[in-house]
Amino acid sequence: MQITAIEKQQRRRRANIYLDGRYAFSLSLEVVAQAGLHEGDALSPQQVRSLHQADVRHQAREAALRLLAYRPRSEAEIRQRLARRRLPKDAIQETIARLREQGLLDDTAFARFWVETRDQSSPRGRHLLWRELSAKGIERETARQAVDGVTEEDAALRAAQKKVRQLQGQDYHVFRRRLGDFLRRRGFSYSTAQATIERLWREGQQDPQRS
Q: Residue 157 CB: number of other CB atoms within 10 A?
């Protein structure tokens, strides 16, 4: 088989490959360049298969890099998202292995990132953080180490302070119930929630602006 034309697609970084005068398949421009393909080159069936495999690997890597450009991801997240694209398992595994070697995939670093981001934007309890990490495929010990640094009392206080603004003027029973429900949804223990509620209620009673 002979390459009779290589036509670049208008809106994608891909090229249409024509063999013996007929359209045969498309490849990413990167694969075309890496393989050094030119019009007039002869291709064996084995070479065509190798080009297809290289193109699939390229698609898997590009898809993974786009996901990582949005935010850090766990290995399990990347695996699941690539599987949705119906990419071959071997291409997915090779992509993950390469990204891991390059330091672009690191479940330990991801777990720290997740906990730190949550703590800054939406503080929550260790148990809920651990469940979130587990849902993202993080191993139990890695998740445990990531959440161990969270100080529940401090996180609960920071989370509750935002909610308290919505509860100004409520009586103690409403204040206690609504804030308690909020903190439990954020994964804080009953004892931590109660201590936080009592502290903020006392502070509110002492603040003349809240009276």
A: 18
Domain extent at residue 139: 107-147
- Specify the 3-state DSSP secondary structure of 170: coil
pTM score, whole prediction: 0.78
**pLDDT tens digits, one per residue of 4-34:** 999 999 888 899 999 999 999 999 999 999 9
Residue 128 contacts residue 192 (beta carbons within 8 Å): no
| 5 beta partners | 18
Q: Which residues pair with 6 in a beta bridge?
A: 17
CA distance 104 to 107: 10
**Cβ neighbours of residue 196 under 8 Å, at least 6 residues apart?**
153, 156, 157, 160, 179, 183, 188
CA end-to-end distance (rounded Å), the chain: 86
Domains in the chain, number: 4
How far is Cα 32 from Cα 15, in angstroms, rounded to an integer?
Answer: 8
The answer to whether residues 101 and 115 belong to one domain is no
Q: Are residues 93 and 116 in the same domain?
A: no
CATH number at residue 25: 1.10.10.10
| Residue 51 contacts residue 34 (beta carbons within 8 Å) | no
Measured CA to CA, the distance from residue 192 to residue 125 in angstroms comes to 9
